[in-house]
Amino acid sequence: MGTTTGITNVLRGLALAALATTRGVVSAKPCQVPVVTAMLFEAEDALLTGTRVETSLAGYTGSGYVAGFDEGTDKITFSIPSNATKLYDLTIRYAGIYGEKRTSVVLNSGANTEVLFPATEAFTSVSAGQVLLNEGTNTLEIVNNWGWYLVDSITLTPAAPRAAHNINTALVNPAADTTAQALYRYLRSIYGKKILSGQQDLSWANYIATQTGKTPALVAVDLIDYSPSRVERGTTSTAVEDAITHHNRGGIVSVLWHWNAPTGLYDTEENKWWSGFYTRATDFDVAATMAAGPTNANYTLLIRDIDAIAVQLKRLRDAGVPVLWRPLHEAEGAWFWWGAKGPEACKQLYGLLYERLVGYHKLNNLVWVWNSIAADWYPGDATVDILSADVYAQGNGPMSVQYDQLIKLGVDKKLIAAAEVGAAPLPSQLQAYETHWLWFCVWGDTFINNAEWNSPAVLKEVYEHDYVLTLDEIQGWRTAS
Ligand SMILES: *[C@@H]1O[C@H](CO)[C@@H](O)[C@H](O)[C@H]1NC(C)=O
Ligand SMILES: *[C@@H]1O[C@H](CO)[C@@H](O)[C@H](O)[C@H]1NC(C)=O
Ligand SMILES: [Ca+2]
């Protein structure tokens, strides 16, 4: 276990406000007393648990930086005073010299916010979303998570009120059918005002009804078992029937696809054929296939697979179901084969999907949902209607860091959804942070039914809250103007 230094930074933070002119964190209005606009806290002055102060990498501020994040409980604890309940933007100055990592930010022992630290050679600042400080002393912890990064300091700046959104009025597909248009019109009408409750899988949606008395507004289904490389090994699915069932009771449907690689499945003891959507379970090379083009046998298999999925999407269309369609999810994580070879191949595959489903199959009931945050993975405004992120962090927090990143990515012209979460966000937090996720969708087994992620009390609070729309409250959305 590591060392603990007991210097708290309460005084440090206040003193900084006084010294701040030399650090550039005070804005002086002419003929006025300087207004404190930011509070900076050096990591090396905070309470350290399992971590230590170092000075060997140049470029830090203060008297050093904190290193030694290598165990789950390793952390830095800042004590932060506040005169009022107030929302602040948080930035963390860090160095990612061991590559891309993730840290966790925990405010007042509450929700766990996951923050991505891109790889860097020097100290640099990254936005870590917002924190709602209480009046009095607050604790803000930076906890290991992946570990292996260096932390120099944090800065808290009073958050500006959220600017008005400027959401595109039309879907990207000019031939979008009336069902997709009605869905999009309805989604725009509630954005920023309410959040749609959502659940992965119809059976888990019905489980929520037994737990809370309310049914989710949105149900997501997975086309995984319609992937040809699974069907040929005997899989069957009721995902389409389940989606139609939810549609017929007035609900909204989202569809994702854990696309089992068309070929190249290892099918070993460790990596069975049914894991074939994971990078680790296949040597299918999406970059080589896209580069080889339409005459390549593997490219032909991609088309075969897309056409098989088109059959299912047409069944939804024929039943009058507009679909929030979220293919190639979590690509930037690289754990799925479609993201394994970097952004360019993935974007080409997304373009192929769009062209084949919209251009060739004339599937006009789709609303296109993109699911990565990083700008270099973004396929572009012309083929994306809604931006989304998958966030797995405990504590039922508002996920403001990811929301803000998506606002930037879409220049606030695209609706933004929490397409998969481990923990349903607390509506009071969503409102306080003004994180206007359009929907949240909790993953099924071991998340929705796991008190560490979603306690029965939290689920009840979420599903009974006025800010959260449930199935009974969205009836008639298809004809809403
Ligand atoms: C808190 O209030 C005190 C006393 O009014 C003031 O001196 C100080 O600048 C305030 N601090 C912040 C961070 O607003
Ligand atoms: C198709 O992909 C498989 C699996 O990665 C690979 O073994 C094979 O060489 C590829 N075929 C072509 C024609 O590129
Ligand atoms: Ca420092």
Automatic annotation (TrEMBL):
One of its GO terms (biological process) is substituted mannan metabolic process. Residues 1-28 form the signal peptide. The active site is at 330 (proton donor), 420 (nucleophile). Residues 39-157 form the CBM6 domain. It comes from the Eukaryota. GO terms for molecular function: carbohydrate binding; mannan endo-1,4-beta-mannosidase activity. Keywords: Glycosidase, Hydrolase, Signal. Residues 178-472 form the GH26 domain. It holds the Pfam family CBM_35. Belongs to the glycosyl hydrolase 26 family. PANTHER family: GH26 DOMAIN-CONTAINING PROTEIN-RELATED (PTHR40079:SF4), MANNAN ENDO-1,4-BETA-MANNOSIDASE E-RELATED (PTHR40079). This is Glycosyl hydrolase family 26-domain-containing protein.
